[in-house]
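Can't paste images in this forum, so I'm doing it all in text. The chain is below; anyone willing to post the predicted structure tokens underneath?
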Amino acid sequence: MKQKPCVSSGSGTLKSFTTTSLNNHLSYKHPEEYKQVVNKRTAAATPSRGYQQTGANQQTLADVIGKKKMWSINSAEARKIHHAIGKMIAVLQHLLDISMVYIDLK
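Text version of the structure:
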């Protein structure tokens, strides 16, 4: 005999469909399924034999420290950024001057 899917709308608003509500519903109405979910979460969160593999996206400490390194004010990277910021300010100032002329003409 197939069991009907459990569709509980709660208060009927989208805000009521949260993961906390789902966990509570599973634990009270479907305890066997809830145990399976908890076991899967526990197995996924626990590293095997005390060894945790580093993923492709996980940064090393050396990478993080290297990114925090400050540039010298006269370095090539700093000069490149200063030049780009200067150009941006000049373009924005020019646009502001044009818009002020346009306003004065009205």
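DSSP finds four helices and no strands in the chain. The chain has a mean pLDDT of 76.
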